[in-house]
Specification:
single chain, alpha+beta, 5 strands, globular
Length: 80
């Protein structure tokens, strides 16, 4: 699994605001390696991008179908 800089920084921000909520998101992201298209994720258009939502947290990731590589692009929160 490859984490883009923006995703890593977003995760740090979320952890500083609400570390407990982030635990469930990180657990879900880690399971994406075994199941790249879980029921909790949504395909974004006609691309290899998917969005994973866990409560108010979300992550956007890209699947490279040839090698099944997962690239975490963005992590954030839907709560304002």
């Amino acid at each position: 699994m490859i984490w883009e800089r923006a995703a890593s920084e977003g995760l740090k921000r979320l952890r500083s605001r609400d570390g407990d909520a982030v635990k469930a998101l990180v657990k879900a992201i880690n399971t994406v390696a075994q199941n790249p298209e879980p029921a909790a994720s949504t395909k974004l258009g006609n691309t290899n991008l998917r969005r994973l939502r866990v409560d108010a947290c979300r992550a956007t990731y890209e699947i490279d179908g040839d090698t099944v590589a997962i690239k975490i692009l963005m992590v954030g929160s839907t709560a304002v």
